[in-house]
Design goal:
Elements: E1 2-6, E2 12-15, E3 19-23, E4 41-49, E5 54-60, E6 64-71, E7 74-78, E8 81-87, E9 91-96, E10 101-107, E11 114-121, E12 131-136, E13 147-152, E14 161-163, E15 168-174, E16 179-183, E17 189-197, E18 200-202, E19 205-207, E20 212-216, E21 220-225, E22 229-237
Parallel strand pairs: 13-14
Antiparallel strand pairs: 1-20, 2-3, 3-4, 4-11, 5-10, 6-9, 6-11, 7-8, 7-10, 9-12, 13-15, 15-22, 16-21, 17-20, 17-22, 18-19, 18-21
GO molecular function: metal ion binding
Binding site for Fe cation: 58, 60, 103, 105
Keywords: Iron, Metal-binding
């Protein structure tokens, strides 16, 4: 098994006043040659956005963009939908940018900060027709068991949102003292694990709030929860 540990305080930290961003990988003005990506995982941003603020209209192409709100209200609009789409905690949003899409993202609250993860996955198909998807996932369905949020459009998995890559994004909420064995779907994949909240141990390495570990060259690994913990898994091809 091969592992790489990224502690929370080693991320690129940017404070724009209205936006507090933490970049797990090189992004915008943050550059670290040793943190360009993890296989097909290109971006994992942990953002906090002030009330009524956000990102104006901007363009993307040939990228799979996944947004997971943790608290607050996200409002999204793109040139596939003229109306604002509201995305709440418990929901996940995917956008396959493909040949090109323009969109805006704002904090839809006048008094509450918005906290979210934004994930970019490099697609395995270029210049596809842009797609949008959004789905609510029940918290009780990930209590001490894996809940798959996103999977490949080529994979017949019921209930998950779809992207153009052989990747799987999932979550689990582990009770204090519980253990869970994660099984890779492909031996050529890697898994990037982030501790959303809590305290866990993987391979004698303790991970706390927003610490992360990339794991590869294995078929499985075991997580032990040292506290009530919420985890995010991003499994991607490495090459």
């Amino acid at each position: 098994m091969k592992t790489i540990v990224h502690k929370a305080d080693s991320r690129g930290q940017v404070n724009h006043g209205w936006l507090q961003a933490n970049h797990s990988f090189s992004f915008a003005n943050y550059f670290d040659k040793d943190k360009m990506q993890f296989g097909a995982l290109r971006v994992l941003n942990d953002d906090v956005i002030a009330p009524k603020m956000g990102f104006g209209t901007h363009a993307h192409d040939n990228m799979e963009i996944i947004t997971i709100p943790l608290s607050g209200i996200l409002k999204h609009r793109d040139n596939m939908h003229q109306d604002w789409q509201q995305v709440l905690p418990g929901e996940v949003q995917v956008m396959s940018a493909g040949t090109g899409v323009e969109h805006s993202e704002i904090n839809g609250s006048v008094d509450e900060h918005l906290s979210l993860f934004q994930i970019w996955v490099i697609p395995n198909k270029q210049n596809v027709e842009p797609r949008y998807g959004q789905k609510r996932f029940q918290k009780e369905d990930r209590k001490n068991k894996l809940q798959i949020l996103v999977s490949s459009i080529d994979e017949n998995h019921e209930g998950s949102l779809k992207i153009n890559q052989d990747a799987t994004i999932s979550r689990i909420d582990l009770d204090n003292g519980k253990s869970f064995e994660y099984q890779f779907k492909n031996k050529n994949h890697g898994v990037y694990v982030m501790t959303i909240f809590g305290n866990i141990t993987i391979e004698n390495e303790t991970l706390e709030l927003r610490d992360a570990m990339g794991i590869s060259d294995s078929e499985n690994f075991v997580i032990h929860a040292n506290d009530n913990s919420e985890l995010l898994f991003i499994e991607v091809p490495l090459h």
